[in-house]
Amino acid sequence: MTYCVAMKLDKGMVFLSDSRTNAGVDQISTFRKMTVLEKPGERLLVLMSAGNLAITQAVKQQLLERESANGQTLWTVGGMLDAVQLVGEAVRQVHARDSDALTQFGVEFNCSFLLGGQIGRQPCRLFMIYAAGNHIETTAENPYFQIGESKYGKPIIDRVITPTTPLDEAAKCALISMDSTLRSNLSVGLPLDLLCYETDSLRVTRFALVDESNQYFQMIRSTWGKRLRQVFGEIADPTWQKSDESAAVPLTDAGSALPNLARPPQNLDHEASRPLVQTVAGNP
């Protein structure tokens, strides 16, 4: 499993991926999930993958080592829509070639991709590609995508990220999201690839390979945990009933709600209603 997140913002884009893959508790390896295609001054594309490692590598090889049916590659397409269609085409080609054999061995065709970037002076765009080769694009209402083990890192992004979020603040949010995932799921692991792309730069200007020794990430881990505990401690405990002595907001009014009480079986009610009689052996 892995975790990748990408954000499309007014000022650019943020990409973050982990590098752990595993086929069991004793088969854990490191494979980087982010691939960057840079042609300075012309295009910058970032491709991230999650799912079955053999499948995602086959798709990447199809994309990077072969031309499409019409002779196009990610290095030559004229726009981001053409680029994402190439990724979808590569996914379908690998599926057509390998899916039957995988099915015979009980292996699901499991892969997903994030593709974002900018070509020329066209707008930045960010897409998510599914295992069927189809895709969706970010919107102003949903300016980010996640693939892989996404559930642990989603709440902080939902609360923080909007299209107007500055790039560095978005990078901080992505790292906190990743830290939450690392703490809750052993199938996600360091090192991390972090890339912040500034609109119209058409080159890599901000990139970090984050490992255990990275001081900023260690600060994030320590500070986020301490502040969460601090905020948690500052929130009042529940007050079950309002009283004149307390200014706290009550959790409930007295008698306003009852739990869903289960009724005991009738025979149990009957037995329970009998008087308890003690007898001693030998006595009437």
Explain this structure to me?
Helix content is 32%, strand content 24%. The protein is an alpha+beta fold. A hairpin with a 2-residue loop joins strand 1 (3-9) and strand 2. The mean pLDDT is 90.
Mean pLDDT: 90
Biggest sheet layout: 5 strands, antiparallel
What pattern of helices and strands is seen along the backbone? EEEEEEHHEEEEHHEEHH
Q: How big is the Rg?
A: 27 Å
Distance between the termini: 72 Å
Major sheet: arrangement of strands: 10-1-2-11-12
Helix and strand topology:
Elements (H helix, E strand, L loop, with lengths): L2 E7 L2 E6 L2 E3 L5 E3 L3 E6 L3 E9 L1 H13 L14 H25 L6 E9 L5 E5 L5 E3 L6 E5 L5 H7 L6 H18 L7 E7 L7 E5 L4 H20 L31 H8 L11
Antiparallel strand pairs: 1-2, 1-10, 2-11, 3-4, 5-6, 6-7, 7-8, 8-9, 11-12
Helix pairs in contact: 1-2, 3-4, 4-5
Summarize the structure.
This protein is of the alpha+beta class and 284 residues long.
Q: Keywords, please?
A:
alpha+beta; single chain; Glutamine Phosphoribosylpyrophosphate, subunit 1, domain 1; 284 residues
